[in-house]
Amino acid sequence: MPPSPRTRAHEQTHGHAHEHRPARGEGHAGGHAGGHGHSHDHGPASPASARLRVLLAAVLVPFALAVLCGLWFLWPAPIPPHAVTGVGFDQLTVTGTVTATRAVPCDGGAPVTGTAAPGSGAVGSCTAITVRLTGGKDAGRSVEQNLTPDQTAVYVAGEQVVMDYSPSAPASLQYTVEDADRSTPVALLAALFAVAVVLVGRLRGLAALGALAISFLVLGLFVLPAILGGEDPLAVAVVGGGLIMLLALYLCHGVSARTSVAVLGTVVSLALIGALGELFIGLARLTGNTSDETAFVHSLFPGIQLPGLLLAGVVIGSLGVLNDVTVTQASSVWELHAADPQMSARALYRSGIRIGRDHIASTVNTLVMAYAGAALPLMLLFALSHRGVWQVATSEIVAEEVVRTLVGSLGLIASVPLTTALAAFIASRDAHESPQIPSQRPSVRTRAHASHRRRR
């Protein structure tokens, strides 16, 4: 029975026709009662989409091969052993538990660690702590140490501590308290972080944790040993950063055109950061030797190139923020395209760049505040000095961080229009270059699926 005029009007208004079972003998051609306004076709991608994928692969596959070749050429040999110096982190340590604390005179004859500052009132105000060793060859032995008032750490009975062990020192001075043992609270915080990521992100959060683990593996197994082995720090950072970027982005966001666009935007931005970093580190005559840790590592491994190490830190430090910005921009453009598939590349770019401007404003401020927070004690020291603000800002210890922050920010700013333009071009071509295939009568299985969806 043919549909009534009211039914036909409803079908024209809502853009799809309800399914009418064909009469016996009508065959395949008589079952479609009007134009179907949406398609359930899940077949292969159109030729234009295939061409775009080939274009993206033509750019990204050589880059991935170059990263693998660099990994093979720069893979480090085992780090040569060195004698323990007993300085900084290069010390033997054991664990212990504080069993008792008491107030003692600072001149009571017990071993004293630390030097009291003049006028600090050290006499009569020291603290003696007793520690029972829980690790090492002397586990179970108790040692005592006096802490002077200028030592800010305060220990209580039952607290876990880390003890420095100096085998060449006299027996009474072989063990000294180095620090509190923070293993339990740090592990608890890490577990809380992992649970929160998985609860909120679900499978995507689990993938992010996997990418985080991969990043640490690349840094620990390749980047750090290669730099210690005397390889060019910039080359190591580019190869290691490229590997982290490829694995992290595709693992977290899947293999898709939008992820590939984010990868391309990140690659170009990292190249810009590397070029600007090398230029301004040279112009500013930065040596990279501005901390005791850097000087100590260089004394153990003289082959390390300190300016290159600084540049490598700029590249790797910018990678995480770049990934965030490029993925956000590519996803924003694709969501705009999904909301209105007829938007042109120009319209997509204009809408996407407005989102990017907001992202730039907040992210650049985040970078500056992160540096200010980390360098707050140093900033307080300079605030007490008698130097001018500009003289302080251009001193090497501050200029190093200024160059690091500004170069990273320039790469971040450049990534927004670049990634937005790439995403707008590819998303619009995906819609406008695809040939429109005439609508055909769906199969019985497709009709049943559509009918089931309408009933729901």
On the 0 to 100 scale, the average pLDDT is 78
Span between N and C termini?
Answer: 26 Å
Low-pLDDT residue intervals, each spanning 5 or more residues: 1-48, 109-122, 432-449
Note the total helix count.
12
Query: Strand pairing plus helix content: what structural class?
Result: alpha+beta
Helix content: 55-70%
From the alpha-carbon coordinates, what is the Rg to the nearest angstrom? 32 Å
Main sheet specs = 6 strands, mixed
Q: Give, in spatial order, the strands making up the sheet with the most strands.
A: 2-4-3-1-5-6
Element order: H for helix, E for strand:
HHEEEEEEHHHHHHHHHH
**DSSP E strands, number:** 6
Q: What would the principal axes of the Cα set say about the shape?
A: elongated
Strand content: 5-15%
Please characterize this protein's 3D structure.
By secondary structure, the protein is an alpha+beta fold. The chain contains 12 helices and 6 strands. The chain has helices spanning 5-14, 47-74, 183-228, 233-253, 257-283, 292-300, 306-339, 345-374, 376-384, 389-393, 396-432, 444-455; strands spanning 92-104, 112-113, 126-133, 142-147, 160-165, 175-180. The chain has a 6-stranded mixed β-sheet, with no helix packed on it. α5 (257-283) runs antiparallel to α7 (306-339) and α5 runs antiparallel to α11 (396-432).
